[in-house]
Design goal:
The complex is a heterodimer of chains A (61) and B (175).
Chain A (H helix, E strand, L loop, with lengths): L15 H22 L17 H4 L3
Chain B lengths: L4 H34 L3 H35 L9 H19 L1 H12 L7 H28 L6 H13 L4
Helix pairs in contact in B: 1-2, 1-5, 2-3, 2-4, 3-5
Classes of the chains: A mainly alpha (61), B mainly alpha (175).
Chain lengths: 61, 175
């Protein structure tokens, strides 16, 4: 159990590790958006388009 | 509602089992995704993508929902609470986000599996294959982070938790 036990006054501030976690989370969201805008995948799934078969995908055909 | 000690241990055992099994299953998925992306053996590569869908549908998805049930039951049934401590809140957010992202990836996983089963993976699928590796690697990191949070329980009480603790002490002061 946390030993943080304030009795009165204002609530304790946000711990540093929470701020770090939030910054990492925001950075990952930004990375996702940037990659998506650049068309480098992560949701930009296109099932049509290219028809070339991957080499190792046709070896056994 | 407070859980009895026996019930608390039972739910805790279930929660740990589900959470760690989820991590292990996603690690297995990552291994298959890397293998599928790098393998030069067409049959093995196709088998990997078929196996990935089976693992996802029958193991990973059920295991992702189980901690969402046992976690809140465990935290609400003990003095920890669900919104009182940042580490519990962080775990909840990680679990919910991981489950949502997993469900979003169900369609591409299914597509890859069917394409591999029909031996018709195209160069357009390469993007999806890379995406599977990146997404599962990120999921492993997120689930490891959740496990570390559960073990270390870093200090930090939310304003809500602080207020509730203050109210409880005011209502029933210690003798």
């Amino acid at each position: 159990m946390s030993k943080t036990a304030p009795d009165r006054g204002s609530p304790p501030g946000t711990p540093r590790w929470v701020k770090v976690l939030v910054i990492i989370f925001i950075a990952l969201i930004l990375l996702f958006v940037i990659l998506h805008l650049m068309g480098l995948g992560f949701g930009g799934h296109s099932l049509g388009g290219h028809t070339l078969l991957i080499e190792h995908g046709v070896q056994q055909l | 509602m407070t859980l009895t000690p026996g019930l608390r241990k039972f739910v805790l055992s279930a929660h740990v089992t589900f959470a760690v099994s989820w991590l292990g299953a996603v690690a297995g998925f990552l291994a298959l995704a890397v293998f599928g992306l790098t393998s030069r053996d067409a049959q093995m590569m196709r088998a990997a993508y078929v196996a990935m869908e089976v693992i996802t549908r029958f193991i990973i998805v059920p295991l992702s929902f189980a901690p969402l049930l046992t976690g809140p039951v465990l935290s609400l049934g003990t003095p920890w609470g669900l919104f009182r401590h940042y580490w519990i809140l962080a775990k909840l957010v990680i679990t919910i986000l991981s489950t949502v992202i997993l469900l979003v990836h169900m369609q591409p996983i299914s597509h890859l599996s069917h394409a591999a089963a029909e031996a018709s993976l195209t160069s357009a699928d390469l993007e999806l294959q890379i995406q599977m590796v990146a997404a599962s690697a990120a999921a492993v990191l997120a689930l490891v982070a959740a496990t570390v949070l559960a073990v270390y329980k870093p200090r930090g009480m939310t304003p809500y938790g602080w207020r509730k603790q203050y109210e409880e002490r005011t209502v029933s002061p210690e003798p």
